[in-house]
Amino acid sequence: MENVKFVFNDLATNWEKKHDFIENIYDGESERLISELKNYVEDGMVIADVGCGTGKVTKALLELNKNITIVAVDTSINMLNKLNEEIRDSNNVEIIQSSIEELQYCNKFDLILMQQLIHHLPDPTKGFINAKKLLKKNGKIIALVIGDKHMSDLFGFNKEYDSMGRFTKDKLENIACEAGLKIYDFFDDKFIMSFSNLDNYINFMDSVSLASKMNSYVKFGAIEKLRSNLEFIKDNKPFNVKGNHYTAIYVKEEAVIEHNNKTIEAYSMWSNNYSDVVLRKIIRRSYSYDDLAKKIKNIINCINKKDKKKVLEVGIGTGLIGSRIKKLDKNISLTGIDISKEMVNKIDGDDIYDEVVISDATNLPFIDKYFDCIYTTFMLHHSYSLNKILFEFNRVLKEDGILIIVDLMLDENEVIDAQAHSEIHEYGAGVNYYPLSRLKSVLLLKKFNLVDVRLIGDMKGLSHYMIIAKKE
């Protein structure tokens, strides 16, 4: 770790100039963590920027103009001194010299950020174990790191020991598991880096510390060794190199378990009168489950397929929608999934679903590209991770498959005490309400093209919408 400190203390001398050079090469492709901040930063949060360097992420947090406390952490005193010079007028930033493994803090963090950090850690799992200790109950960790395809056209990836410190998605998931965390969302950003010549590339590798890292963080001889490894590049012409960054968002495993257990318990209690209650609720919105089933069935019938259409219903409850769709069209092969066994036991009829699975929908137990259509009604807001569940939907849909979502949506800028609302209306099930704009943006991120958005029934607080999307 001392060698790492030495390298970054040395880089701090003219880091800002080098940073401009680095950004030109990356062409903004290292910004996923920063671009996601607006979705996760809220007033009152305590946020750690670990491996802050001269403060690129810290400054991005300040630009959000939120009432937050920022703790900027780095092992390099020279980097921290540069940061301190630039933000000396900011009274909501605390600067600490520490590694993530040794960091101690009297408060807990709502958010821990690690941009291009974990491939520099001697033991990433140890770092994440300590990060988990420093995290609030429902806090999140966002980590951006170079992936296994990064520069693989120049340096083959070594799964056992990669000198560049690149990560596979599996390794990032294994680290999460060992540290008691779960991946809440995941991004794989691929891009192309352009270099004018070999010297330009070597200068870049020196600027981002990778030349030193590949030389076990020994500065002496690092450039010469790198150049000797690239002797196959004979001419001094422009060339391109593949880039690849993974961004993983982690949550505490126990927070996910608690959320799902709340939902299971709530629906167990609600199962006894669920059908009667929700049928009345829908009628008060001036439509019915019959209307809704017809709309969904008509969309399914637009799928151009001669044999039976394979359809997945997520959150089948007591079968209110599935039973109606099956009556309307017997030529639909319907698979159902729900988190509550008690709700499923209240389904009236054995011929509705070809298969019923009891499971959390953020880990669908189906092979890739299996279904022609997925629909879900009033279930999505119970998912712990909107991002993860939409990723799963995309994974199991066939090419050009259709996704139909019916759910409650917040009005834009509406604020609601979600858990209090759930206690009154949904037996305290775990909930995450969001505005329509948020759902649209996540659908696009998860490779869906929006086809249609329809208001269903009367517009009231938490209005009902149907969103139709097609897999890219």
Give the key terms.
alpha/beta, 25% strand, 18 helices, 7-stranded mixed β-sheet, 472 residues
Task: Give a quick rundown of the structure.
This protein has 472 residues and is an alpha/beta fold. It contains 18 helices and 14 strands. The mean pLDDT is 91.
How would you describe what is shown here?
The chain is elongated, with a radius of gyration of 25 Å. The protein has helices at 2-11, 15-26, 32-40, 56-63, 77-86, 124-133, 169-179, 198-207, 210-213, 222-229, 253-270, 274-284, 289-301, 320-328, 341-345, 386-396, 418-425, 436-445, and strands spanning 46-50, 69-74, 93-97, 109-115, 135-146, 181-195, 239-252, 309-314, 332-338, 355-358, 371-377, 397-409, 448-456, 463-471. By secondary structure, it is of the alpha/beta class. It is built from 18 helices and 14 strands. The two termini are 44 Å apart.
Main sheet attributes: strand count, strand direction, barrel closure: 7 strands, mixed
Q: What overall form do the CA principal axes indicate?
A: elongated
Q: Give the end-to-end Cα distance, rounded to a whole number of Å.
A: 44 Å
SS field, number of helical segments: 18
* Uncertain parts: none
In the sheet with the most strands, the strands line up as 3-2-1-4-5-7-6
What is the averaged pLDDT score? Answer: 91
Strand content: 25-35%
Q: How many strands? A: 14
Helix content: 25-40%
